[in-house]
Amino acid sequence: MVWVAESPGALPPASAAEQSGPERAAVHGALAVGGPGYRMLLLAPRARLTGLHAEVAALESAGAVQAAARRVGGLALAVSPRQGEDGAVHREVSPLDEEDRAGVVVQVWESTHFGRDLDIEDAGAWGRRILGATGPFGDLEKLGRYATWVPGDASDLDELTTLLAAGAGVAIEIGGRPREARAAEPGPPRGGGGGRRRRRRGPRRGEGGGEGQ
C-alpha cells in the first residue's frame, strides 16, 4: 500500500513499512504535490522525502518535479495530470519529463469521466503505462478498488520505484459486484414492456423443412 499524504506530518509511522509479511501489506509513505496543470505523487526514501517535498513545492513544471525526484533516488508519478485538487479539468497540461518513463495514474475514483478520458488519451500519446489508484478523490470505501500491479516485490520501496521508473506497472480494477449479488438483482419484468421475449416458432408438421427441425 502507498499511503499518500498532503503534508509530511500526515505520513504513516516509519515502522509501518517494516510490518510486511505473509498476512500484512507493506505501507510506503508518499507525498502529494501540485502545481499549474499537474498533480504528482512523490515516492522516495523516508529520510529524503520531506526535503524533496519542500524542494519541488515551488516548481511550476511536472517534468521538473520528476527530474528533482530522480536526482535523490526517488520517483514522481503524475496523478490525473489534467485534474486539480478540486477535480477541475485543466486545458493546458504541464509536460512530463521525457527521460522519465514512469506511467500515469489515470484510473482514480471520483474523477470526472471527461478528465479521465483525456488522461488516458495523453498517456497513450506519451507512450506511458496507465496506472490505477484510489485517490486523490476517493474515500475509504473505495480503497483498493483501482490498483497498480507491478512485476516484482512491491514491499521493497527501492524495487518498486525502480520498476515504476522503468515504465512497468499496469492499472487493474479490484472487486466489482460479487457474482451472488449480481444473481440476486431483479431482472427485467416478465411479460410486457422491454422484458418480453418472443419465442421463435419452428415449422409445423407438414411445413417445409421436414419434421426433424
Describe what you observe in this structure.
By secondary structure, this protein is of the alpha/beta class. It has a single domain, classed as TIM Barrel (Alpha-Beta Barrel), CATH 3.20.20. The protein is built from five helices and eight strands, in the order E-E-E-H-H-E-E-H-E-E-H-E-H. The strands form two sheets. It has a six-stranded mixed sheet. A hairpin with a 2-residue loop joins strand 2 and strand 3. The longest helix has 14 residues.
Main sheet characteristics? 6 strands, mixed
Strand percent estimate: 15-25%
Strand tally: 8
Q: Can you give the helix content as a percent range?
A: 10-25%
Uncertain regions spanning at least 5 consecutive residues: 192-213
Structural class: alpha/beta
Gyration radius, rounded = 24 Å
3D shape? globular
Number of helices: 5
CATH class wording? Alpha Beta
Distance between the termini: 60 Å
Q: Based on the coordinates given, report the CATH architecture.
A: Alpha-Beta Barrel
**Tally of distinct domains:** 1
Q: Could you please say which CATH topology applies here?
A: TIM Barrel
Which strands sit side by side, in order, in the main sheet?
Answer: 1-2-3-4-5-6
Order of helices and strands: EEEHHEEHEEHEH
Summed over residues and divided by their number, the pLDDT gives a mean of 78
